Amino acid sequence: MSRSLCAHCKFSLSTCLCEDLSVLDNKLKIIILQDPNEIKVSKNTARLLTLCLTQCELIIGQTQADFSILENLPIASTALLYPDEDAILLDDKCASTKAFTAQLSHLIVLDGTWKKAFKLMQLTPALNNFKKVSFASIPHNRYRIRKAPRKDSLSTLEAVAHSLALIENADPSGLYQVLEALNNKQTQFMPEHVKARYQAK
């Protein structure tokens, strides 16, 4: 029997996050390419970004044929958030980095596990047309309810929040607040000894 979902946030009625949402009027347009397997993941944060950002588009697919939007993005002012040895580090305060980020209009983000993100890269060669950006220092992971295999893992929401803070000096506190609400509501019915594993450290 399927769970009843909130018509707006698409979370179950018992974990509805509508009252926790706040809108960030971002200037940089976020383009999220989502692996289809992430759609039904109850802890997925990409959908929250579409509700919390004024400039955000989510496209579901696995291959270049699914992501025709890439053909229309301006190459010079679009970046791909992806760890790479040649990536421009957004938290590098040098003049060249500041000049690059100042002219950005679009940021592409891959939503999925590391393995799925790598597969998206392999099946979507058009992504290589854009310069890659990443972080020299990874902020503390606030996404307690979904265990990641790598220490430098961030949820899609956290990665976008940190990027917006670095690129356009946006205040990401509203995004972090809804993430904390997601943490709390997804663990609210757990036995106390299980819930303790997910408490903030």
From TrEMBL:
Keywords: S-adenosyl-L-methionine, Transferase, tRNA processing
SMART domains: DTW
The EC number(s) this enzyme carries: 2.5.1.25
UniProt keyword Metal-binding, yes or no: no
Keyword Hydrolase: no
Pfam families: DTW
Domain DTW positions: 2-191
Protein origin, superkingdom: Bacteria
Similarity section: Belongs to the TDD superfamily. DTWD2 family.
Official protein name in the record: tRNA-uridine aminocarboxypropyltransferase
Organism: Pseudoalteromonas prydzensis
The organism's taxonomic lineage, starting at the top: Bacteria, Pseudomonadati, Pseudomonadota, Gammaproteobacteria, Alteromonadales
